[in-house]
Amino acid sequence: MGPDAATSVRSAPVTQRTANVIGLGLIGGSIAIGLRQRGWRVHGDDTRPGTETRAVELGVIDAGGLAPDADITFVAVPVLAVADQVGRALRETKGVVTDVGSVKSMVSEQCDDPRFVGSHPMAGSELDGLDGADPEMFNGAVWVVTPVPTTDDVTLAKITGVLRELGAEVVALSPDRHDQVVAVVSHVPHLTAATLMRLAVDRAEEHAPLLRLAAGGFRDMTRIASGRPDIWLDICAENRTAIIAALDELITGLASMRETVAADDRDALLAALTGAREARTNLPGRVVHPEELVEVRIRIPDRAGAAAEVFTLAADLGVNIANFEVVHLAEGNRGVAVVLIDAASSDVFKGGLIARGFKPSITALT
Amino acid sequence: MGPDAATSVRSAPVTQRTANVIGLGLIGGSIAIGLRQRGWRVHGDDTRPGTETRAVELGVIDAGGLAPDADITFVAVPVLAVADQVGRALRETKGVVTDVGSVKSMVSEQCDDPRFVGSHPMAGSELDGLDGADPEMFNGAVWVVTPVPTTDDVTLAKITGVLRELGAEVVALSPDRHDQVVAVVSHVPHLTAATLMRLAVDRAEEHAPLLRLAAGGFRDMTRIASGRPDIWLDICAENRTAIIAALDELITGLASMRETVAADDRDALLAALTGAREARTNLPGRVVHPEELVEVRIRIPDRAGAAAEVFTLAADLGVNIANFEVVHLAEGNRGVAVVLIDAASSDVFKGGLIARGFKPSITALT
Question: What's the burial of B9, exposed, middle or buried (CB within 10 Å: 0-12/13-18/19+)?
């Protein structure tokens, strides 16, 4: 590249872009620090005393309050407060506005301004608070935007551009569709985990040690029941219609499963379980080319350092880990590391594991 | 200790004890190699050609076939074949006999010999096959024994003694009670995970990328749906009554949850979710003294080596990890390591993690 080309690329002086973030919790804080690290000036607003000062100290924002001429304002407050704060952002600032709430229909009905599009990043609800703010939280995560027929194209493009700048993979859905999908993949699973957990406790009431049997798969399945109840009250209130519809479908599905078991209809049961197994195996993750990957399962002994050995070994051998999960045995407390690696690395990885006393089981992903 | 004491401890020559294991899969193989490593002579029997030879080569058993004078015979075959093999073991050998099937009522009714007591180790159903045989599989695991009124005390004591020798914590339950409990904590959760998975697939049918939203908590919750369907057909057939009863209770519980959401009854919903959360938090694991432990949550970045760092750091700092899980965020693909450590180590561990760029969140277990 000659000096002319270089000059042309770098010639236009860029004005620093500015963003507002209303609500400096985990999500708001992560958006703010993520944008700052990508060259933005970020103003932050929070009703909790001292939060803005703390956010400035932590380098999460440049200054407190809202910048009226900001290019974009993110509303990252609890679900029930979203509509009010979106209205305020539209009144007090000139740029585009989005929110990050877990339910989208209601806010989309209440805010039909052409400068607003709702959104929902599928990331980060396990850890709480500003101290956990992470500039890379959305890198590789799905971020749903929920345009409506009146949505302004330029607004949508501006907002999705910023989300992509944060590393997110943007998926557009209507607000209703979004709410229906999250009811099935997030809200109803949570209510189901809570119901299963209570069922187990009721069964074990007269003999508490029985819960000792509730290990492994049951622990994985009910873990989401340990989430914060207050968040779920608001979500259930805002997404009531979709949650009820999904609960009805689940109840119908379980009643059908009950009849299949009662009739000892092995063919129907096999079809149901096989279909579910295939769907679970094909659940999309971050993996882009599953046909080139193999799944390595390694039982992890109950001692410190064993998982570390697996990770370190992979790094030592130059084996790239595409995905890593630790799952519990369906029955029992011990873990199994489920690691996805490039198929071309499987022999070297297997050999290294065996040499260190592990017993890997390798399966091609089909 | 003087020479006399040493002599008295070692004076009695011990005849080598002998065990038979029928069925050399993962569980049978682990029992066999576990007993061998504890000084037993082990005979193994398997109908699949070449399995006994392979087991001898691997050091899992001493010899193929059944030893008629064995002290104990373990029957570790698929659920529907258990009763036949228990009968055979009682005919062909003189010692006590137990099986390790996942369902206990039917076999207990069919086998009322005083030399037999059924049992069920809560361990090891994720990995398959003899190659995964692990002498420490049952160390620290719950192993249920299911005596009935006609059970011989000496038989029960002999069998539980051997299970404890393998490191298991033995819990005695009636066969019916066992089957009712595992229906709730294992069988019905499996059927529920499969039903949820199919619901999500049906919803996403016209728009497959929607399953991209099904990450995090949903992945944890449906993972058991990826288990082998054929095993579950037999379990559903053998434990039909208890599974139907538990499915009915779950359906009733979900219908009640539906009404609570429909009525926007926040108090009832809060009570239900809070109760489930407390029960989940108190789920007993391997941890003996939870009041002395703290839970450390550490977000794990999506790169190789991060979890290794956490483990290695703990080992370097002399921090003993009482339990370790990697869980997914309720929404999103990234992991959070949930580590239980001694409360006394929490400051040194936290400091070390922060120094290495992690952001630990520490909670006392109450």
Answer: exposed
Strand, coil or helix: B357? coil
Predicted pLDDT of residue A172:
81
> pLDDT tier at B251 (50, 70, 90 boundaries)?
very high
Q: Per the structure block, which two tokens stand in for A314?
A: 């992979």
Q: Domain limits at A221?
A: 178-255
CA–CA distance, A219 with A333 (Å, rounded to integer): 9
Contacts of B177 in chain A (CB under 8 A): 207
Question: Which pLDDT belongs to residue B1?
Answer: 40
* CB contacts, 8 Å: B233 with chain A: 266, 269-270, 273
* Total domains present in chain A: 3
The residue ranking higher by pLDDT, A184 or B281, is: A184
Statement to judge: residues B199 and B328 lie in one domain:
no
pLDDT of residue A314: 73
Helix (H/G/I), strand (E/B), else coil: A79: helix
Same domain for B277 and B184?
A: yes
**Where does residue B47 fall: left (phi above 0), alpha (psi -120 to 50 degrees), or beta otherwise?**
alpha
- The highest-confidence range among A8-12, A117-121, A328-332, by mean pLDDT, is A117-121
In angstroms, rounded to a whole number, what is the distance separating the alpha carbons of residues A136 and A348?
31
- Minimal C-alpha gap between B5 and chain A (Å): 34
pLDDT tens for A309-323 read 676 677 667 676 666
Region of poorest pLDDT, from A309-323, B31-45, B240-254: A309-323
A194, B272 in Cβ contact below 8 A? yes
Given a contact cutoff of 8 angstroms between Cβ atoms, the answer to whether A52 and A44 are in contact is yes
Whether B63 and B199 map to the same domain: the answer is no
pLDDT value for A206? 57
Nearest CB to B251; choose among A202, A243, A255? A255
Locate A96 and state its tokens: 């585009």
What ipTM did this prediction achieve?
0.73
CA distances from A98 to A122, A162, A303 (A): 15, 11, 46
Nearest CB among A186, A215, A312 relative to B308 is that of A312
Within a domain: residue A243? yes
For A254, the closest of B181, B192, B333 (CB atoms) is B192
Q: Which of residues 235-264 of B touch A (CB under 8 A)?
A: 236-237, 240, 243-244, 246-251, 253-255, 257-258, 261-262, 264
A135 and A186 share one domain: no
- Chain B residue with Cα closest to A270: B229
User: Would you say residue A39 lies in a domain?
Assistant: yes
Give residue A22's pLDDT.
98
B102-123 per-position pLDDT tens digit: 999 999 999 989 999 999 998 7
* DSSP assigned state of A35: H
Distances (CA, A) of A99 to A35, A36, A85: 16, 19, 9
- Mutation site for B-interface testing, chosen from A146, A199, A282 by largest number of B Cβ within 10 Å: A199
Query: CA B211 to CA A231: how far, in whole Å?
Result: 23
Highest mean pLDDT among A78-92, A197-211, A331-345: A78-92
Please tell me whether residues A26 and A160 are part of one structural domain.
Answer: yes
Nearest-by-CA chain A residue for B195: A253
Are A139 and A7 found together in one domain?
yes
